[in-house]
Each structure stands twice: as C-alpha cells, then as structure tokens.
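Model: You mentioned two targets. I'll fold them one after the other.
Researcher: Yes, keep them separate.
Model: Target one:
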Amino acid sequence: QVQLVESGGGLVQAGGSLRLSCAASGRMFSTYAMGWFRQAPGKEREFVAAISWNGGSTYYADSVKGRFTISRDNAKNTVYLQMNSLKPEDTAVYYCAAAAADWRTVRLRLHNDGMDYWGKGILVTVSS
C-alpha cells in the first residue's frame, strides 16, 4: 500500500510558475512509476505527465509538453511537477498517482486512469 500526499498548489497568475510535490509512504516507492493527472471543473480527469521508476523515461500530454517537467527523488520518496508558463486552462485539481507495473504497461494505462494508488489532489488556480 502506498499513500500519496500532494503539496505546492495555490493561486498563480498566467505566465507564472508553480512546483507541485508528492510525498509517498512506503519502501516500494523507488519501484513504482509515478504520474500526475488533473481534473478541471466539469471535466473528466486527464493525464498530465509520468515518469518511470528510475527517472530514465518520461511522458507528457501534448497540452503541457515544453512547459511542465516531471522529476523524482527516490531518496526522498518524492515526485515533482514543475509547471512553467501557466495558462488559465491549467486550472484544475492535480492528482499524484503510482503504478506498480513496468513502464510499457504503465504507458498503456495512463490514458485510462489505470494507476494503482492515488493522492487526494491539490488545487491549482491560474488567473488571467
């Protein structure tokens, strides 16, 4: 079992930056692929970014590519999402998630909400 706790959300102006953090419990963190997802008001939850267990592979949604960067520190059991050049359409509740599967399988599951563990989410609001 993995517990995930997001932090770092808040209100930012368009064009600004925020860094989200997700702290994970448990010894198995370094074996999990990690991802960030978001859910805007009135919309379904969508994939944002993912990273393999050792950080060697990353994958981004087209909508955030070039603006967001996912990274992890296995020594700290933490995954990050650096968000730059934020837009009002980035406003959403952001969720951290973990998957106990190999990277190839995780990639297939990302767009189907197919992660194994989820955080409770944190709100990011981008004002225009």
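Model: Target two:
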Amino acid sequence: QVQLVESGGGLVQAGGSLRLSCTASGGTFSRFAMGWFRQAPGKEREFVAASSTTGGNTYYAGSVKGRFTISRDNAKNTLYLQMNSLKGEDTAVYYCAAAWSSTSGGLRIRGNDYNYWGQGTQVTVSS
C-alpha cells in the first residue's frame, strides 16, 4: 500500500514563500506520475500542478503558473511544491497524489486519475 505524507505547510504573509514536500513509501516512486491539489474551505478540490514520472514534464493550473514549481527527487521518494509570491487565495489544504503510470512522460490533471492521496497540509496566507 502506497502512503503519501505531506509536510511544509504553515502560515505565511502574502508575497512570501513556502515549500511543500510529499514523501512516498510502499511503492516504486519513480513509476508514479505525481500531482498537487488543493481545497479551500467551502470549495471543491482543484488541480494545482502535475509531474511526470521523471519530472521531465510538468503542468500547472493557470492560477499558479509562474509562481509555483513542482519538482521531484526519485532517489529520495519525494515530491516538492515551491510556492512563491503567495496570495490570500492560495489558502487551502494542499494534497499530493500518486498515479500509476506506464509512460515516462505522462501527466495527470484530473483527481479521478490518481490512485493514492496524502492526508493534506494546511497553507494559510495572511494579507
């Protein structure tokens, strides 16, 4: 059973930065396409960013493109999300997710395409 554990959330002022981490166990991390999602209070879960198995392909939601960077270290079984220029609307619980992938360049942007989810980490941006 694959387990995903997020960390790095917290309270930050608008304009600041945070780096989220997601550490995986119980599976071959390099075989998973990975993604970050978020859910704000009273809103539906939304896609944030996706990475292919190697990290060579990435994709971002328009609302975070240019501010957030998704990356991964397959040797450390860890996915990252560097978040810069944070805004109040970035406040949410952030989740990482893993999807079995048979292709090295594949990306997943729909939540239903993911097989495993972490428990989430809270990010709060104060204005």
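Researcher: Noted. Anything on target two?
Model: Residues 11 and 124 are 5 Å apart (CA to CA).
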